[in-house]
Write a structure and sequence with these properties.
The structure is a single chain. With 208 residues, the protein is mainly α. The protein has one domain. Helix content is 76%, strand content 0%. The protein is built from eight helices and no strands. The longest helix is centred in the middle third of the chain and has 29 residues. It is globular. About 8% of the residues have low confidence.
């Protein structure tokens, strides 16, 4: 007959199995680190080629009601950073799922994607509206806010630490909304520094 400790151990194992089946656990710390590096490189390029423009294209958009400078290139830069980050995350998650002998695309992965996509799509549309109105200075705070909300949503179906990262992004977005002249700095810290720190933490905690 099993002792009480053995029953408790069995219950713990069952709970662990249920959690693994309902959560997407193929995310890797390296995907966060690489996303942070891509973001820092993108922020540096944006600062070097756009924020130092003599016309002050970023800071004058509220008064002038138009976006000056090479906006198309700036949008392409942002899309490039996003594609690299997402592509790297998918590839590394696929490698981890292969190593663990699991399916990458399962019910948990679908829930993560859905809960990420809805806030991100809404944020992307809102950013385009801001740009069309010449309110370019608000794009950095808005991207941080909506990204943070997306992470808070997705954190319900993957590692809990993702919620903490999402909360930090929301706080940074609110701070960037107040300190409008420093949007790129907040953006670089949120998408760059925080991703690298999160990735290192996740790698040290979960990598085997």
């Amino acid at each position: 007959m099993k002792s009480e400790q053995e029953y408790m151990r069995d219950l713990t194992e069952i709970r662990s199995m249920m959690e693994r089946s309902s959560r997407f656990l193929s995310l890797t710390g390296w995907s966060g680190i690489m996303a942070g590096i891509y973001a820092l490189v993108g922020a540096f390029i944006a600062y070097r080629f756009f924020y130092l423009d003599a016309s002050g294209s970023v800071y004058n958009t509220i008064d002038m009601q138009e976006v000056q400078g090479n906006l198309v290139n700036l949008i392409l830069l942002a899309v490039g950073v996003l594609v690299l980050a997402v592509g790297t995350a998918i590839y590394l998650s696929w490698k981890k799922s292969q190593k663990d002998n699991k399916k990458l695309w399962n019910a948990a992965a679908r829930r993560v994607v859905i809960n990420l996509t809805i806030p991100l799509a809404a944020g992307g549309i809102f950013v385009l509206i801001l740009i069309s109105k010449g309110l370019f200075i608000f794009t950095a705070p808005v991207t941080l806010l909506f990204y943070g909300l997306a992470l808070l949503n997705a954190g319900n179906f993957t590692y809990e630490e993702l919620k903490s990262l999402g909360l930090i992004q929301v706080i940074l977005g609110l701070a960037a909304s107040y300190f409008l002249g420093y949007g790129l700095l907040f953006w670089a810290f949120g998408f760059g520094g925080m991703h690298i720190g999160y990735g290192i933490y996740m790698h040290l905690k979960y990598a085997k």
